[in-house]
Amino acid sequence: MTQPIIALENLTKTFRVALKPEGRSLPWARTWKTVTAVDAISLAIGRGEVVGYLGPNGAGKSTTIKMMTGILTPTAGTLRVAGRVPWRERRQHVAGIGVVFGQRNTLWWDLPVQESLDLLRHVYRVPPARFAENLTRFRALLDLDEFRFKPARDLSLGQLMRANLAAALMHDPGLLFLDEPTIGLDVVAKDRIRAFIREINRERGVTVLLTTHDLSDIEQLCERVIVIDHGRTRYDGALSELVERYGGDRALQVDFADDYAEVAVEGATLESREGRRAVFRFGRGVTAAALIGRLSERYTLADLTVREPDIEDTLRRMY
Amino acid sequence: MNAYLALARASLARQFRYRGANLAGLITNFFFGVIRVSVMVALYNANPAAAPAGYDLAKAVTYLACAQAIIGWVALWGWWDLVRALKGGEVVADLQRPIDFFGLWAAQDFGRAIAQLFLRAIPIMLAFALVYPLVGPADIGQLLIFILSFALAWFLSFTWRFLFSILGFWVTDGTGFARLAIFSATFFTGFLMPLSLFPDALAGVLRWLPFAGMVATPLDVFSNALRGPEALVAVAVQAFWALALYALAQATFTAGVRRLTTQGG
Amino acid sequence: MIFIRLASATLRAQARYRASLLVDALSALAGNGLEFVALALTFDRFGSLAGWSMGQVAFLWGLTEIAFGSMDMLFGGFDPAVFGQHIRRGTLDMYLLRPVNLIAQIFASDIMLRRLGRIAQGALVFAYANHVLALAWTPAKLLYLPVVLVSAVLFYGALFIAGATASFWTVQGLEVVNVFTYGGTALNSYPLPIFDRWLRRFFTFVIPTAVVVYYPALYFFDLPDPLGLPGWVSFLAPAVGLGALGMSLLVFKWGLRHYTSTGA
Ligand SMILES: Nc1ncnc2c1ncn2[C@@H]1O[C@H](COP(=O)(O)OP(=O)(O)OP(=O)(O)O)[C@@H](O)[C@H]1O
Ligand SMILES: [Mg+2]
């Protein structure tokens, strides 16, 4: 990896939260506790990567993104994005990034989308020619024409997210932060947004950091994933390796040709049995071929399937 | 009857949970009261002889202190619950309950008012009593008339709030009209200044309108400005308007529901 | 300039709700206007307030209302109630993500045209005061009047910004802030000597709202201060207005460090 565009070192954020909600207790009668949302996370992301940032609810994903985008000040640790300390040089920093929070809106609520985009052109000082180019491109990729002249408050959630994606990229940011951009969207809308992200990354080399609870987003977009839990890094590496390392056992499903009283094979454990069908689990130490060999020596087999654990299983085991 | 009681109790309990907001509101109400009482004291000091016969400074100060105390009880300012429920469409659920809609909201508001009596009205009166000489109902009879008048003030205020809130059946955002209704009515309720200090002709007219019954009448009874038969007449006026506004509210509500069901939300 | 573009976007958005804008402005005009009428009717019976005539009180009232109404319109984004909502809903995040000065964005985010109702009310009362008072306007006084008005706007604005800053920490405390903002203003509408000593001192030396309205008014009326402060206090208004605004902005920037966004 050459010079990373995002570099975190022991980044930490703690919140002080009241044990009783505010308003129900008087100021002097309140008790507090400290919540560590992000707990000494270190990572580096290179230019042009598309990285999936995963973790269960409350893991600290959004908090990390808020620090990387300059909204929150870290409690401890260092953070550099494109060579800058986001919260210290907020304005220069945000001029070079694009951000979309799912189910939130950055457009002017009562103004037509097109007017919002025009305003953003001035906010980010985008040269008019470049703005026109981007607009044409995004109109095609995100089908903006369907709702471009409607005020944001009249858009469906899917339309609103498309409009927000366009808004986040009008100023050609080198970095795109997406916090659950597909939340609440239907399959078609999700596909369109994924295709757009892929396109933007390929065509412009935009670095993308994406959080999501929809694993198809990850499968279709990311080669690299970072998994965190309770504010700590659990995994950082290739998506394929994640399954291999944490995926646990594979499963072999066997349909026997006869009714056997008992079925067993060394190297695998019987997980379930139903009529003539049985499912065995086996670890990385044995190969499927060896198991099948042993089984067919003893029994007559009708059919076989080998199942690899998927990301969902893997994550379920990790969380 | 039990359902209404349960609603009132739940709404009362809810008020008691927001301690911080209640304390803050109390401080604010008290502070504004101090400003208004200061003005009153200065007016009386300038020309004590100009006050109406029998209406001395203590009565006027008591009136203003009570006006601050009654804010939470009648909730004429800043009550948006029903306006919001109509705007947000939650009333549809209420309409499906096997319970009178007016009664449902009245029960909840009564619970709120009772809570405010203990959280705001009484503490504010105590605070004022510490700082200024106040007067109270002269005898048991006066006290009983006051309690009746005080209760009617709540009912009148609720019916009035109910009325302008359900205009939301006809307009998409009732907030603006509600605000207009509130701001214009404040003057007529006698909240701003004791009615007894207004020019006699004006005060005479205001006492016959429904608004005086929401604030001025119980305050004048409490401070003994209205006594005996005068007080009873004032309470009778309150009772008359209570019935009239109630009938109007029910009729308006029926028309509103008809509109909702024939035209859709 | 980007500020003007953002502000005009806010105004364009408001223009979409013309009817409710009008109703709101009217209710403010009626509500605040009737409050003055109630005072005037009662005043009429007694004839004076701490030696001040109705016209003089109307002068204070009008000046205060114009200043507070204008402030409320221009500093609407900092209205503690409005700003508290931004914080609770996390909309402040959105402003932080734009490469524009945050304070400029908050100013541009809420310019409340409906406050024109209150300003109009103040202007009417002020006009009435000038009508009955027949003040001896000298060029110096005429020049100082707009200075006082602007100073009062800045000073009240500083109170709003300070209140907004409090919402970085507390929600429930916000109503207490009203004591200083709305309460301090209400106090400005009456001659200072009618208040108890602790109130006078507090609003002269701690939160000096008296210095931006009452003391300048003494100069316009050529009155000495019955409380004994020297004449030059009447000319402190601009310094106090600017100073308070500067201080409140510093405090706001410091408070922003404590912004924790929302959990969602
Ligand atoms: N502003 C805040 N004040 C107090 N606590 C907060 C705040 N923001 C986040 N937290 C807490 O920090 C922890 C991490 O929250 P965060 O929003 O970063 O999680 P997340 O990984 O984005 O979760 P999700 O998948 O649900 O979006 C949680 O325990 C949350 O309650
Ligand atoms: Mg999150």
Describe the 3D structure.
The complex is a heterotrimer of chains A (319), B (265) and C (264). Chain A is of the alpha/beta class and 319 residues long. Chain A is built from 10 helices and 13 strands. In chain A, the strands form 3 sheets. Chain A has a 6-stranded mixed β-sheet with strand order 5-6-7-3-8-9, with helices on both faces. In chain A, strands 11-12-10-13 form a 4-stranded antiparallel β-sheet, covered by helices on one side. In chain A, a hairpin with a 2-residue loop joins strand 11 and strand 12 (277-282). In chain B, 74% of the residues lie in helices and 0% in strands. Chain B is mostly helical. Chain B is globular and about 60 Å long. Chain B has one domain (2-257). Chain B has helices at residues 2-17, 19-46, 57-74, 81-88, 91-95, 101-131, 140-165, 175-189, 200-206, 216-222, 228-263. Chain C has helices at 2-15, 18-46, 54-74, 80-89, 92-96, 102-109, 116-133, 139-166, 174-188, 197-206, 209-212, 214-221, 237-256. The two termini of chain C are 34 Å apart. Chain C has one domain (2-257). Chain C is mainly α. Chain B binds chain C through residues 18, 20-21, 23-25, 27-28, 31-32, 34-35, 38-39, 41-47, 50-51, 173, 175-177, 179-180, 182-184, 186-187, 192-194, 197-199, 202, and chain C through 19-20, 23-24, 26-28, 30-32, 34-35, 37-39, 41-51, 171-176, 178-179, 183, 186-187, 190-191, 194-196, 199. Bound molecules: adenosine-5'-triphosphate and magnesium ion. Residues 61-62, 179 of chain A line the site of magnesium ion.
Give a topology summary.
The complex is a heterotrimer of chains A (319), B (265) and C (264).
Chain A: E1 6-18, E2 32-45, E3 50-54, H1 61-68, E4 76-81, H2 90-95, E5 97-101, H3 113-123, H4 128-142, H5 157-169, E6 175-179, H6 187-204, E7 207-211, H7 215-221, E8 224-229, E9 232-238, H8 239-246, E10 250-256, E11 269-274, E12 277-282, H9 288-298, E13 301-307, H10 311-318
Parallel strand pairs in A: 3-7, 3-8, 5-6, 6-7
Antiparallel strand pairs in A: 1-2, 1-4, 8-9, 10-12, 10-13, 11-12
Chain B: H1 2-17, H2 19-46, H3 57-74, H4 81-88, H5 91-95, H6 101-131, H7 140-165, H8 175-189, H9 200-206, H10 216-222, H11 228-263
Helix pairs in contact in B: 1-6, 2-3, 2-6, 3-6, 3-10, 6-7, 7-10, 7-11, 10-11
Chain C: H1 2-15, H2 18-46, H3 54-74, H4 80-89, H5 92-96, H6 102-109, H7 116-133, H8 139-166, H9 174-188, H10 197-206, H11 209-212, H12 214-221, H13 237-256
Adenosine-5'-triphosphate sits between chains A (15, 17, 35, 37, 55, 57-63) and C (260-263).
